[in-house]
Amino acid sequence: MMNRAAIAAAEVILEVYRRPVVAMEKADGSPVTEADQRAETIILEYLAETGLPVLAEESVAAGRIPELGARYFVVDPLDGTKEFLKRNGEFTVNIAYCEDGHPVSGVVLAPATGEIYWGGPDGAFAGRLAGDAIEGVAPLQVAEAEHPLRIVASRSHGHAALAELCDTLEVAEDVSVGSSLKFCLLAKGDAQLYPRFTPTSEWDTAAGQAVLQAAGGVVLGMDGLPLTCGHRDDKFLNAWFVAAASQKLALRALAEMLRFVDA
Ligand SMILES: Nc1ncnc2c1ncn2[C@@H]1O[C@H](COP(=O)(O)O)[C@@H](OP(=O)(O)O)[C@H]1O
Ligand SMILES: [Mg+2]
């Protein structure tokens, strides 16, 4: 059902993507487009069948914050709006299902390329959209190889500490990519580490986290525990985190990242 909702949202996003796009500015200064809003409306229609609350980026921006119980969805209808506006294809539809604050399952779909990644208790999978169908479905599994280490980072939100971390951890290659596709690169074994030094919201990470966890990876906050959702008092913002192919690698990176906290 989450996959169907994401596919329907992707169709609307592509329709907008094919014509000249006009960006508006949200209250927090970040860009939003007609695609973000229309995609979210469609996803909410699909998820309404479940009767569960939905924490969704554009609804929250408009002041519609649901009362979250133990089970709810977290939605970013268009993650990587900056990449969407740059027309580089690196934007995604994200839907996660959470229980007791933990992302349990999720889907990340890149409309421009048709790549779809999903994961949950039954494992993690990737495929490619062919109309409404998904073809070439294959299981996802992280690749833990620690040397050479491949690191992924935000294309639009870098941080000075990243260069130093790359030196310390003997990183072979660093790849920049927009949006939650970074989690998917780890899930499919193309990279091992995604350290995030700049803020994100829960809807930017929940679906990618579910996919990565289902593929054998981890997403840890600075306390060394898996990231959790539903933090209304923090305005649903995540602090720094690290996503990695293994717990061991995540903890090694965290030890380095802690040196930069408040630096
Ligand atoms: N200061 C900030 N506070 C909260 N989230 C931020 C932020 N700066 C960037 N982000 C988030 O980072 C996302 C993009 O990630 P990346 O830089 O890895 O591509 C954006 O998603 P949207 O495009 O959905 O707004 C946005 O939510
Ligand atoms: Mg986002």
Automatic annotation (TrEMBL):
An individual GO BP term: phosphatidylinositol phosphate biosynthetic process
Residues that, per the record, bind substrate: E57, L78, D79, G80, T81, D204
Catalysis: reaction(s): adenosine 3',5'-bisphosphate + H2O = AMP + phosphate
Residues annotated for Mg(2+) 1 binding in this entry: E57, D76, L78, D79, D204
Enzyme class: hydrolase
Xref: PANTHER family: 3'(2'),5'-BISPHOSPHATE NUCLEOTIDASE 1
Name of this protein: 3'(2'),5'-bisphosphate nucleotidase CysQ
Organism: Devosia insulae DS-56
